[in-house]
Design brief:
It contains six helices and no strands. The protein is an all-alpha fold. It has one domain. The radius of gyration is 21 Å and the shape is globular. The complex comprises the extracytoplasmic solute receptor protein and the two transmembrane proteins. Belongs to the TRAP transporter small permease family.
């Protein structure tokens, strides 16, 4: 395999391993939020922020742990026939089926970018152009120029009304990491087909 592909696979694996291992500990944050929710409902006035915070932490836990789960092969698989195949046959099937996952994640990423653009106050139909203009303004004119591109920030419709752009940014970033990891898995499968372990 070319050195650039090997470096890509190792770099993406290392990054997603690091992020995934940090994301594992978010379960304790989730437990703490839910524990506080239970205590506050019994002993104090119930907190408005606990339910949505628990949902946001769960999104972060799930979406940032997803690429690491793909890397470890611990995601759910249908093992009816797959378990008895040779490593090379598995690599051929995985290299083919991962293309469907990459297509799905690409559509999901485009939808996440549209949702993030909406959370930042963009109501048009071309989110990619919006982000190109936003980052162009950030790099040429700084934060003040980028702030002019941001419109009315979306808030949740609950009583707490948190802004939604942070969790949508995290969701978009996690989907992007998953897409990078599936591309690394594709390269790894191509290597296995050629008899090279990356």
């Amino acid at each position: 395999m070319p050195r650039i592909i090997t470096g890509y696979v190792r770099g993406i694996d290392a990054m997603n391993r690091f992020i995934g291992r940090i994301a594992m500990y978010m379960i304790f944050v989730l437990i703490g939020v839910l524990l506080w929710s239970s205590v506050s409902k019994v002993a104090f006035t119930p907190s408005l922020w606990t339910l949505e915070t628990a949902q946001f932490v769960m999104v972060a836990y799930y979406i940032l742990g997803g690429p690491y789960s793909i890397q470890l092969g611990s995601n759910v698989r249908m093992d009816l026939f797959y378990g008895g195949w040779s490593h090379k046959t598995k690599a051929w099937v995985d290299a083919f089926t991962v293309l469907f996952l990459m297509f799905y994640l690409g559509i999901l990423l485009y939808g996440a970018l549209g949702s993030l653009a909406y959370a930042l106050g963009y109501f048009g139909m071309t989110p990619l152009e919006y982000f190109r203009d936003l980052f162009g303004a950030l790099f040429t004119g700084g934060f003040d120029a980028a702030a002019e591109k941001i419109g009315f920030l979306e808030r949740s419709s609950t009583a707490w009304r948190p802004m939604l752009w942070p969790v949508k940014t995290l969701l978009t970033f996690g989907i992007f990491l998953m897409l990078l990891q599936t591309l690394a898995e594709f390269f790894r499968d191509i290597g296995r087909i050629r008899g090279v372990e990356i």
